[in-house]
Design brief:
Blueprint (H helix, E strand, L loop, with lengths): L1 E6 L5 E6 L2 E4 L3 H10 L5 E4 L8 H4 L4 E2 L13 H11 L6 H9 L1 H10 L14 E2 L9 E2 L5 H15 L3 E4 L2 E8 L11 E8 L4 E6 L3 E3 L20 H9 L3 E2 L4 E8 L16 H5 L3 E3 L19 H15 L4 E4 L7 H5 L1 H9 L9 E10 L2 E3 L11 E3 L4 E2 L11 H20 L26 H18 L6 H24 L4 H22 L24 E2 L3
Parallel strand pairs: 2-11, 3-4, 3-12, 4-8, 12-19, 18-20
Antiparallel strand pairs: 1-2, 5-7, 6-7, 9-10, 10-11, 13-18, 13-21, 14-17, 15-16, 16-17
Helix pairs in contact: 1-6, 1-12, 3-4, 7-15, 13-14, 13-15, 14-15
Bound molecules: succinic acid (SIN).
Succinic acid binds next to helix 8.
């Protein structure tokens, strides 16, 4: 609902918008929250690109859940799924969160199906279940190898039809508005967000006492990532600036198998994901001589949890000087890859690679942020009215290493839990009467930056430093080096941000440098190796570090 508007220039129209629920992000968590909330009030969904541009949309493998016995044809149990999750999480999962989320698996799948999601079934009408690293059973529901796209398009179709949901694309949330930031010393609650409309270049005020961060991950903090360009950790950075607690940012998961394409230059040379589900069907990791090296690292071989596989590949590459290892699918029956993994098969083909004939060259790349904005089991953050769901949240499910395909599950389950809690605590219609007046965004007399090279240079420097010094294998010295560089970059970015009219590039750079710094600060603090945080200087697990790394600005 538009409350008022005024002109700033011929191009800019400043608006103040108000809705019962403000959702920032349009992946599984954001959209499924919006669909629930729309039954109870007006919902605005802010997306910085098109609504389909999310990590969810890019997810290949699937969503893990233990289905009722009559819907599957093999043994499994929630307890086994819980055990696998705890095992991968290396002592840092919150067992309560793990149990709560996993036990809702079957119900969440049912709900997705009702929203129109089509999961693959076998000829007997049972769900076809895939397997991925660290899972002791087949329990991954999938839609070929574009499961995330199937979920994202189904939810979006429902959301677009709903009269109570307004989806605003190309809108970039800059900062949260909270009562503490407006000067209240007694109460910290969320009041809305300032949002850049990228088309009109104006900054609008979105008012809402119920705000959900569902902004996804931060893969773009690294040079090589499986994530879309939009994954710049915006939710974590905004929550950090607003004073919310952030946890476990050192745990950035690297996916072991991205297509290594030597004919491409730049980051795109190694960003196309080859799903772990391919290994789940029996593909093997080999070196250039055909040696199946994974058994030297773990008895589970190519299907060990991904921290182990990514580290092993990194080690093999460093040891042999080879640019990549290989994923061998050539033993599959002819036509299998095309039938079961059509997207991967076709994409590889478009790069000129025939995976039925030649093993696929692969390398690891940054994939998933296990840490995030601290929430309880209901998505609640440390700021009243502010909830976080999906990859941007740290619920305790993933601990020090996420089990494959647990994230879409978490996204949908936590959206439900967050919604229920919000309705319990802040039902629409029961507005807080003492909301302080919210000022419009202050543009000042700053001008559009003419030295874009500074932004691009800093962006590259962050991503390269993070890749070189803060990726799969860390050391105290590498972290220290990254820390120095980020300190300088933060200063430069701050000056740039305050000295110029904001653009999307500046805003993303500001968020990237914040998130990169949170990763490095957390990694420096953790003087041990656990899950996906591995450092040569402290290679063992240390019991005194069996705690979350929680950071808070003030
Ligand atoms: C994959 O398909 O390998 C990715 C699945 C995930 O990250 O959960």
């Amino acid at each position: 609902m538009i409350a008022n508007s005024r002109n700033l220039s011929s191009k800019s129209l400043i608006l103040t918008m108000k809705s019962d629920f403000l959702v920032i992000g349009s992946g599984i968590a954001g959209l499924s929250f919006a669909l629930r909330a729309a039954k109870h009030g007006s919902v605005t969904v802010i997306c910085k690109d098109e609504a389909l541009d999310s990590n969810t949309n890019w997810a290949q493998g699937g969503i893990s859940a233990v289905l009722p016995e009559n819907l599957r044809d093999q043994g499994d149990s929630n307890q086994e799924h819980i055990n696998d999750t705890l095992d991968a999480g290396a002592g840092l999962c919150n067992p309560e969160a793990v149990a709560a989320i996993i036990k809702e698996g079957a119900a969440t799948i049912e709900e997705l199906i009702q929203w129109g999601v089509d999961f693959d079934q076998d000829e007997n009408g049972k769900f076809s279940l895939g397997k991925e690293g660290g899972h002791t059973s087949r329990r991954i529901l999938h839609s070929k190898d574009t499961t995330g796209h199937e979920i994202a398009t189904s939810l979006l179709e429902q959301a677009r039809k709903h009269p109570q949901i307004q989806i605003l694309e190309n809108h970039f949330a800059i900062d949260l508005i909270t009562s503490a930031r407006l000067g209240s010393s007694t109460d910290d609650r969320v009041l809305g967000a300032y949002v850049l409309d990228q088309e009109s270049e104006s900054i609008h005020t979105f008012k809402s006492n119920r705000v959900v961060l569902a902004t996804g991950g931060c893969g773009k903090v690294y040079l090589y990532t499986t994530n879309p360009d939009s994954a710049t950790g915006d939710g974590v950075a905004m929550a950090w600036r607003a004073g919310a607690s952030i946890a476990n940012m050192e745990f950035v998961q690297f996916h072991p198998t991205c297509f290594y394409n030597p004919s491409a230059t730049g980051p795109e040379a190694r960003s196309f994901l080859v799903s772990e589900a391919v290994r789940g069907e029996g593909a093997k990791l080999i070196d250039r001589h055909g040696r199946e090296f994974m058994f030297e690292y773990d008895e589970r071989g190519s299907l060990a949890p991904r921290d182990i596989v990514a580290r092993a590949i990194d080690h093999e590459i460093k040891k042999t000087g080879a640019p990549c290892v290989f994923l061998d699918t050539t033993h599959y029956p002819k036509g299998f890859m095309k039938e079961r993994f059509p997207h991967i098969h076709q994409t590889l083909e478009s790069f000129g690679h025939d995976c039925e004939v030649d093993p696929i060259p692969v390398v690891p790349a940054a994939h998933y942020m296990c840490g995030g904005v601290v929430t309880d089991l209901h998505g609640k953050t440390t700021i009243r009215g502010l909830f976080a769901v999906g990859e941007s949240a740290c619920t305790g499910l993933h601990g020090a290493n996420r089990l494959a395909s647990n994230s879409l599950l978490e996204g949908n389950v936590m959206a439900r839990r967050a919604f229920d809690e919000m309705m319990r605590l802040y039902p629409p219609g029961k507005e807080t009467p003492t909301t302080p007046p919210i000022p419009e965004w202050e543009y000042g007399d700053t001008t559009t930056p003419d030295e874009l090279v500074v932004i691009y240079h800093n962006w590259d420097e962050i991503r390269r430093s993070m890749w070189d010094y803060v990726s799969i294998v860390r050391t105290d010295n590498r972290l220290k080096r990254a820390g120095y560089r980020l300190q300088n970059l933060r200063k430069e970015v701050r000056e740039f941000y305050w000295g110029h009219r904001v653009t999307r590039d500046i805003l993303e750079l500001r968020n990237l440098v914040t998130v990169a710094s949170l990763i490095v600060d957390s990694a420096v603090w953790r003087k041990e190796s656990r899950g996906i945080h591995y450092t040569l200087d402290h290679p063992e697990r240390v019991s005194k570090f069996e705690v979350d790394t929680v950071l808070r600005k003030f």
